[in-house]
Write a structure and sequence with these properties.
- The chain is 79% helix and 0% strand.
- The protein has 262 residues and is an all-alpha fold.
- Helix 1 runs antiparallel to helix 2 and helix 3 runs antiparallel to helix 8.
- Belongs to the 4-toluene sulfonate uptake permease (TSUP) (TC 2.A.102) family.
- It holds the Pfam family TauE.
């Protein structure tokens, strides 16, 4: 990994702060981090550097929301996610850096579109109480529910392996399944801790995680934890609509930039 300039390190540090912040507050803010890491570092290597930082953020999120996970939903998703992760691993094994950068840019734009659609759909859903779906809202039951879980699971596994960008896919699935705030955060926290941890052997095998990348992570992790603490403190105070709009706009810009660089 080439020498990182002070300006590039400042960008990576800010992106690491956003990783922690997004895990405990505004889901989706780390899509900006994906674009920053892929623009500053070689695209393939950026996924390996970012993964341990995401795991640290996941641990912070689980510590805060661990009691609110809906485990039947998680067990329903995991087999399909495994298929997607294997497909993403195969893609990374053969794709060059330009193809990976272009793919990350395309994934970010697609995820931005999905997130925008999710927010528009959510605007028409009556507000409910915090927590997981009630007995009459059990997600993933029935043939249609199982097929939906498999589809989202494969897509989520592929996008999280290739670009660490499974967040919008998971958010869209949980929203469509009827999750409320705390159930959403708790289920998402456990999902990504388990999935991201399972990706480590594949990333090591592909050479994406090595000594130099872990050395950089050891420094950047100092920004993830404060970001998570800041997110927890501001979770109930932030103007989420405005922030989500800014996140979407910045993600679109980052995705277009990566497509042009690819």
């Amino acid at each position: 990994m080439d020498t990182i300039t002070p300006g590039a390190f400042a960008l990576l540090a800010a992106a690491a702060l956003l990783v922690g912040f997004s895990k405990t507050s505004v889901s989706g803010a780390n899509t900006i981090s994906l674009a920053v890491f892929a623009a500053v570092l070689p695209a393939k290597e950026s996924t390996g550097v970012l993964l341990p930082l995401l795991i640290v953020g996941d641990i912070c999120a689980v510590l805060v929301y661990r009691r609110h996970a809906h485990w039947p939903t998680l067990w329903r998703l995991f087999p399909a996610v495994a298929v997607g992760v294997l497909a993403g691993t195969a893609f990374l094994a053969f794709a060059d850096d330009g193809a990976v950068r272009t793919s990350i840019g395309a994934i970010l734009l697609a995820m931005s579109a999905m997130t925008y659609w999710r927010r528009r759909k959510a605007a028409g859903v009556p507000a409910g109480t915090d927590g997981e779906p009630g007995a009459d809202e059990a997600p993933g039951t029935g043939r249609g529910g199982r097929l939906k879980a498999r589809g989202y699971g494969v897509l989520g596994g592929f996008t999280t392996m290739v670009a660490n960008a499974g967040g919008p896919v998971m958010s869209l699935y949980l929203l469509s399944a009827g999750f409320r705030k705390l159930g959403f955060l708790g289920t998402s926290a456990w999902f990504f801790l388990i999935v991201n941890t399972s990706k480590v052997p594949f990333s090591v095998g592909l050479g994406l995680i090595d000594g130099p990348s872990l050395l950089l992570d050891a420094v950047l992790v100092l920004f993830v934890v404060p970001g998570a603490l800041l997110g927890r403190a501001l979770a109930h105070r932030i103007n989420q609509n405005l922030f989500d709009q800014l996140v979407l706009a910045a993600t679109v810009v980052g995705g277009v930039q990566l497509l042009l660089l690819g």
